[in-house]
Design goal:
Blueprint (H helix, E strand, L loop, with lengths): L1 H28 L6 H22 L2 H13 L5 E9 L11 E6 L2 E8 L5 H45 L17 H50 L4 H36 L1
Antiparallel strand pairs: 1-3, 2-3
Helix pairs in contact: 1-4, 2-3, 4-5, 5-6
C-alpha cells in the first residue's frame, strides 16, 4: 500500500509542479511578473530627486551624507556626488541615472546607479516563488494522496480480515464522516461482513443441531448392536428397529445435502 501511496503522491506532485512551472514560464514570457527593473528605475530617480533637494536647501555635506546612507543600504542605489566646475558648465543633463545641479554657484553632478546583486542576493528572490510553489504543491499532493489512499488501506485490511475468517470486522466507522462513493463502498463492505457473520452463526447452529440429531439414532443403533451381542436370538426383532434408525439417518443426510444445494443456489443468484 505504501508503494501505491508514493506513486500517487509523486504523480500528483509532478503534475502540480509542472502546472505551477508553466504559469511562471508564461508570466516570464509575457512580462507580467514583478517589475524589478521599473522598481530600480524609480529608486534611482527618487535618489536623484532627494539629492537635488538637499543640494538646493542644505548644501553638499547634507547631500553627501545622504549618498553615504544610500550606499550603506544593500540593494538600493549607489549615489555619487561630485563637483565638476562653476555653474556655467552645467548642461541640461537630466536622466534617470545622472543629473547636473547648481548649488552655491557650483555645478554638482549627481549620479545614481543600481548595484549589481551578488549571486545569492540576485538568485534568492527568484527562487523563493519556485521553492514556495514546490513546498505548497508537495504538501497538497501528500494530503490528497493520503485522503484518497487511506480508505483503500482500510478496505485492504478489512478484506484480509475476512479472508482469515474474522467476519466481525467493520470499516465504516474509520472513514471520518465521508459522504462520497468511498463511504458507500465502506457501507457495502460492512453489510457484506455482517451477512457473512450471520451465515457463519447460522452454520454453527446448524452443525450443532445436525450433530445432535445424528447422535440420537447412532446411539440407538449402538444400543441395538449391544443387545444383539448379548442375545443373538433377538436379531429378527431388532432388525426393524435398526432399519428405522438407518432410514432416519439417511433422511437427515438427505436434508443436509438439500440445504447445501439451496445455499449454493442462493449464493449463485446473489452473485
Amino acid at each position: 500500500m505504501r508503494g501505491l501511496f508514493w506513486k500517487f503522491f509523486t504523480i500528483t506532485w509532478l503534475m502540480m509542479a509542472a502546472s505551477i512551472a508553466g504559469l511562471f514560464a508564461i508570466s516570464a514570457l509575457l512580462d507580467v511578473g514583478p517589475l524589478s527593473q521599473d522598481i530600480a528605475r524609480q529608486q534611482r530617480v527618487f535618489a536623484l530627486d532627494v539629492a537635488e533637494r538637499l543640494l538646493a536647501q542644505e548644501g553638499q555635506e547634507a547631500a553627501k551624507s545622504f549618498a553615504r546612507a544610500a550606499r550603506a543600504a544593500p540593494q538600493l542605489v549607489e549615489l555619487s556626488i561630485s563637483e565638476i566646475g562653476p555653474a556655467s558648465v552645467c548642461g541640461d543633463i537630466d536622466t534617470e541615472t545622472m543629473r547636473d545641479v547648481v548649488a552655491d554657484g557650483r555645478c554638482i553632478r549627481v549620479t545614481s546607479t543600481t548595484p549589481e546583486p551578488g549571486i545569492v542576493a540576485g538568485t534568492w528572490p527568484k527562487l523563493v516563488p519556485w521553492l514556495s510553489a514546490l513546498i505548497a504543491s508537495a504538501v497538497s499532493a501528500f494530503w490528497l494522496a493520503r485522503y484518497l489512499i487511506r480508505p483503500v488501506a482500510y478496505l485492504r485490511h478489512g478484506l484480509s480480515a475476512l479472508a482469515h475468517g474474522r467476519f466481525d470486522v467493520r470499516i465504516g466507522d474509520k472513514m471520518d464522516g465521508r459522504k462520497d462513493e468511498v463511504m458507500a463502498l465502506a457501507h457495502d463492505f460492512d453489510a457484506s461482513a455482517a451477512r457473512l457473520q450471520e451465515l457463519q452463526e447460522v452454520q454453527q447452529r446448524l452443525f450443532h443441531d445436525v450433530s445432535h440429531e445424528l447422535r440420537s439414532p447412532l446411539s440407538r443403533l449402538q444400543a441395538a448392536t449391544g443387545v444383539l451381542r448379548q442375545n443373538p436370538s433377538k436379531l429378527e426383532a431388532m432388525m426393524d428397529r435398526m432399519d428405522r434408525e438407518i432410514e432416519r439417518i439417511d433422511g437427515l443426510v438427505g436434508e443436509i445435502l438439500t440445504l447445501a444445494r439451496l445455499t449454493a443456489g442462493s449464493g449463485d443468484r446473489a452473485v
